[in-house]
Amino acid sequence: MTRIMVINPNTTEAMTEVIGRCAQAAVGAGTVVEAATPAMGPASIESHYDEALAVPGLLAEIARGEVEGAQGYVIACFGDPGLDAARELATGPVVGIAEAAMRTATYLGRGFSVVTTLGRTAGRARDLAEHYGVGRACLAVRACEIPVLELESPGATAAITEECRRAVVEDGADAVVLGCAGMAELCAKISAEIGVPVVDGVAAAARTVESLVALGLSTGSRGEFARPPAKPYTGLLSGFQIR
Amino acid sequence: MTRIMVINPNTTEAMTEVIGRCAQAAVGAGTVVEAATPAMGPASIESHYDEALAVPGLLAEIARGEVEGAQGYVIACFGDPGLDAARELATGPVVGIAEAAMRTATYLGRGFSVVTTLGRTAGRARDLAEHYGVGRACLAVRACEIPVLELESPGATAAITEECRRAVVEDGADAVVLGCAGMAELCAKISAEIGVPVVDGVAAAARTVESLVALGLSTGSRGEFARPPAKPYTGLLSGFQIR
Amino acid sequence: MTRIMVINPNTTEAMTEVIGRCAQAAVGAGTVVEAATPAMGPASIESHYDEALAVPGLLAEIARGEVEGAQGYVIACFGDPGLDAARELATGPVVGIAEAAMRTATYLGRGFSVVTTLGRTAGRARDLAEHYGVGRACLAVRACEIPVLELESPGATAAITEECRRAVVEDGADAVVLGCAGMAELCAKISAEIGVPVVDGVAAAARTVESLVALGLSTGSRGEFARPPAKPYTGLLSGFQIR
Amino acid sequence: MTRIMVINPNTTEAMTEVIGRCAQAAVGAGTVVEAATPAMGPASIESHYDEALAVPGLLAEIARGEVEGAQGYVIACFGDPGLDAARELATGPVVGIAEAAMRTATYLGRGFSVVTTLGRTAGRARDLAEHYGVGRACLAVRACEIPVLELESPGATAAITEECRRAVVEDGADAVVLGCAGMAELCAKISAEIGVPVVDGVAAAARTVESLVALGLSTGSRGEFARPPAKPYTGLLSGFQIR
Amino acid sequence: MTRIMVINPNTTEAMTEVIGRCAQAAVGAGTVVEAATPAMGPASIESHYDEALAVPGLLAEIARGEVEGAQGYVIACFGDPGLDAARELATGPVVGIAEAAMRTATYLGRGFSVVTTLGRTAGRARDLAEHYGVGRACLAVRACEIPVLELESPGATAAITEECRRAVVEDGADAVVLGCAGMAELCAKISAEIGVPVVDGVAAAARTVESLVALGLSTGSRGEFARPPAKPYTGLLSGFQIR
Amino acid sequence: MTRIMVINPNTTEAMTEVIGRCAQAAVGAGTVVEAATPAMGPASIESHYDEALAVPGLLAEIARGEVEGAQGYVIACFGDPGLDAARELATGPVVGIAEAAMRTATYLGRGFSVVTTLGRTAGRARDLAEHYGVGRACLAVRACEIPVLELESPGATAAITEECRRAVVEDGADAVVLGCAGMAELCAKISAEIGVPVVDGVAAAARTVESLVALGLSTGSRGEFARPPAKPYTGLLSGFQIR
């Protein structure tokens, strides 16, 4: 039995439920997914500011997972917030949904496009693509200008599907990456409509963590990603001290 | 039940057996691995020449797999020979062990080194690292100068382990990638000795293909990777005609 | 009169004092520097974890600065934590000491090396160099393995100076960048000893912000760096809500 | 007297004739071009699959050339198939028409565009441009969607010329590279019509090989490109064994 | 009192006056700007040829500045002509307006576009962007096709403003860089109209040099940028001999 | 009969003679090389300053060549000074010896090293390698610290040969590029001693220009490299006005 914790870095429970469902559907029979919602942070992540403030709550969940025996973690926001910090903290592997989605897409052809929510988040997606070494494979980051918490409003699916279609026709994408955890359940439907593979990062990351655990692989901990040195923390965040 | 074909692109059966064993050990309970040896080609792959001539036999195995219902394929040579051609041919996903190993290693820290057999193959590994977008993460390609078919000779394991140790100390690698399918069974042992994660591409690629099949993902087939146009083939290779 | 806020993202007051002194010494007569220490966060920043948890306190200082009329901000930690988020929040320009130091060094020759505290922070410095486009100019990131809060211990200056000297001799650096705000006061002394320009990011960033204010330049706010959309924040961080 | 072998990697004799004529016209008086057609392989190369299966026949021609005293070789297909393997095998220099055309174009201005046959081959051209270091200079790869064996059909020349014209107007290309050996004879005509230099890879590669021979230069053979180690080959390709 | 020499590399006095005025307006109270016009060279710089021939006159001004006690230098042409040579010659720092403008723009957001005079100079701007490491941040180089000496003609400002507006709307630029010293005085006006920060290189470079002098920083002189070795110079340029 | 002008950008006649001899030896029977020495400029080029001041004299030779019917030009200094300006001026192709040598070396294997004169010129060679897209292929730039005009002193050849040998052993270079026109005559001797191909840029560039002329190719002249616009030139350089 493998135990994976999938953390939704925002505080919207309904979204955590979708994410948990998609992750559990993606993994094998012997794997249990726990979907977690942080006790503090923003209701959705649509700016660098939101992302920065989502991290403490996310790290608290990782710390809880360590105590409770989680064997691996998924960070289920397309900005991969707090990924390096989480890797220092966790014993098992940690995977972000943007890195998993983008790397998975590279197995499916030469180029992919990302379809995301608000245009203001495209810069972060571009940054991550460069950071993960897929800058050339990432043909475009397209926004449908629908806020994260309105992804289930009428018309949203049609708008997202239309943007995915444009990725194929205008960018020549071999595959499309959905750029928000909140789009996870649309994956199969859109793929069927547009006729190219569509990658949901939640499912991709859950499978990746599951595989890393199965292979006995986790973050190397002899250098940069060793456990952080213990030291005093002050104020509201004083509980975050490493022991 | 998922059926994956793992193809050893050289013609040495003993190596196919090792590869098959490692791949089967890596995947989940519902997955069956068929390890295949081509009917033509070189006994081992240690040059661009060997690699080029391994491809027809490899593609013949893919064609056979298509007929027999394979759902995904692993190309089990660290040069990832014939990968793009195989993707045109196969209905399911195709993954090379170099790309799987290198991409898997990027989840384990900032940098990895590759430890391979002969120094003359290091250029190909470097090329692939650049091509897959992990050129910066790939800190070094180290050769132990042991030919592929002598990896089981006395002293070989010690020499490989020593080179892996240097990758950690001298390159500052967070993880080590084994640069030959013939090293697959050494993975756990070396990792235990040197204290950093060691990635075997055979296991990594088998898990990756299994995951892609589970997620319903395969190569995008509307552009570059569409089935090749039918046309006459002449001479020895005339049987390779696409219909 | 120009008012610049220089924020030390850790909670060690003694370090804030050094930083404030160096920043004030660097700017022109008409500029007043306010050095700020966050009310929450780690005593020093030596890991991705520390850095992530320093950000909320840092952003609270930016928010306070906005209310009190600060015209520009320096983030005085070599990891440039929270920089993008701060730019969304602030009306005036925000500059990190790593970006200011590295870009300033590019005016001084072809290549520079960074001399930093602990080796485990070198990866972040490398990341930033790539992100800022100075990856090729950055010849090396060298660590003297002295923790941030021991930079004033006996022998520390000598060890740092020695590493700077090696940057010149072994890397062929035209200039050296000091990779920690806590080294700010050593700048002139080391430069005199080794005979090449040495850049302190605190001074460089303070001058850069002062110049941006003088030129009437601030972060473009029509796209990615527009003020974050208002939304509910939960838990400990609920006070961070944008209005 | 310099003897150069120009190998058409497909099995269409009519195309070999055009290629041979263009190569012979390009070289100096003291150089004899032998145009060769492989005894096995595809009638044209329009996919990764075709390209992979063209290589054995091509390498057989190189082996024959070695016996018969060829001093240098051109691989006359724009995918440069088998180039690295051929360099291991040949004593003299080996040049692909894509590398020769692209590098030649870099002497003619800042940027060039490639005009090729089918869109599905554009990815390979892009790959090669990156691999040869001309990714930035290569402004676009444009396809006219005419199959290789229909390049002499009515309307083909007009369509290719039109695409070349767009390269100048829309891409701002200083020069155009023809992306198929089958276009070799159109070069002068198109250049005259559009008023910018047009590079045919067959001519460019023939001149390049001739120059390398004249300068006494050939592939370095002390490392990666040393003669491949001898070993058993099995099956249809058993004749390809290195002795 | 800091003395900065701002050199207009062309011989048009009226342009030198504009440049001097903008530079003086940008620096602090304690800094005196001397604007200089070379005694030889082209009336404007609109080609590689003009740029190459502007350099001797520019270097003569630097040599004069050294004798007269200038503490730093600005090269006020957007091609940054002669920058490396000037750095060898000068004791104090030397900054080009293209590097200052582009690096300054990187503090203002993710991406900027350059708006320049003639399209034929765009290649040089692109080259510099790559050389300075801002190739990715530089979203476009846009030309308004107005010659340098006609920038004050009726309609010029409107045309430049329109091109800046397109940079925002079509390129998504966070900031705009004016690509000619002759546009310096338009900066504030255009910024007010289009609502994003607009960077004038003359002001940016003047502030940068002033800051470098204040920080005690100048070109590293122990390697590549040491004073050039003395040697005979022949002909018209014999007066340029280093002593 | 093809007429090529090979310009030595320094004023040392003895070096012009060596260069002319090597160029003439490299080209075919129907090509006449004219070696030219500028009437003004430095005796040798060993700094950015020297290089900048060599350009006017070099361009005057190009202008003379245009009048006298030269069909192509070689710029015979490893910094490729004035190359872009020369391309605007000349009707025929212009090739620098650094670009020709480096690009030629890329046909000979995966990596080459440059062996040059003074270490202070290595930065320029690195810059050019990046600019020409061979930054990855260029494994090292090695200096033997022998001034250009002392390349014929006793011991010089041995020192250069030794550095070439190190390039093979320490850098793993497949080929070596000689980084100074003054080393042209050593090429065959060093290659024979170290057993890898050694590229002299003078010979390589002469062959390249000869080939471009034979192929009817010259610099594209519809954009950036069109003839420079006519305008007044002042002072010593007033004779350089374009008509």
Tally of helical runs of chain A: 8
Helix content of chain A: 40-55%
**Tally of extended strands of chain A?**
10
Count of domains of chain A? 2
Mean pLDDT of chain A: 96
The largest contact between protein chains, plus residue counts on each side, is: A-C, 51 and 51 residues
CATH topology title of the largest domain in chain A: Rossmann fold
Stretches of chain A where pLDDT falls below 50 for ≥5 residues?
none
Q: Strand fraction band of chain A?
A: 15-25%
- Rounded to the nearest angstrom, the distance between the terminal CA atoms of chain A is 29 Å
How large, in whole angstroms, is the Cα Rg of chain A? 17 Å
CATH architecture identity of the largest domain in chain A: 3-Layer(aba) Sandwich
**Spatial arrangement of strands, main beta sheet of chain A:** 2-1-4-5
**Given this structure, which CATH class of the largest domain in chain A is correct?**
Alpha Beta
Main sheet properties of chain A: 4 strands, parallel
Key features?
17% strand; Asp/Glu/hydantoin_racemase (chains A, B, C, D, E, F); Aspartate/glutamate racemase family protein (chains A, B, C, D, E, F); Iso_Racemase_Enz_sf (chains A, B, C, D, E, F); 41% helix; globular; four-stranded parallel beta sheet; Hydantoin_racemase-like (chains A, B, C, D, E, F); homohexamer; Rossmann fold; 243 residues; alpha/beta
Structural commentary:
The structure is a homohexamer of 243-residue chains. The first copy, chain A, has 243 residues and is α/β, with parallel strands linked by helices. Chain A contains eight helices and ten strands. In chain A, strands 2-1-4-5 form a four-stranded parallel beta sheet, sandwiched between helices. A four-stranded parallel beta sheet of chain A has the order 7-6-8-9, with helices on both faces. In chain A, strand 8 (175-178), helix 7 (187-194) and strand 9 (198-200) form a beta-alpha-beta unit. In chain A, helix 1 packs across helix 8 (201-214). In chain A, 68% of the residues are buried. The model of chain A has no long low-confidence stretch (mean pLDDT 96). Chains A and C meet through strand 3, helix 2, helix 3, helix 5 and strand 10 of A and strand 3, helix 2, helix 3, helix 5 and strand 10 of C. Strand 3 (41-42) of chain E pairs antiparallel with strand 10 (233-234) of chain F. Chains A, B, C, D, E, F: It comes from Pseudonocardia humida.
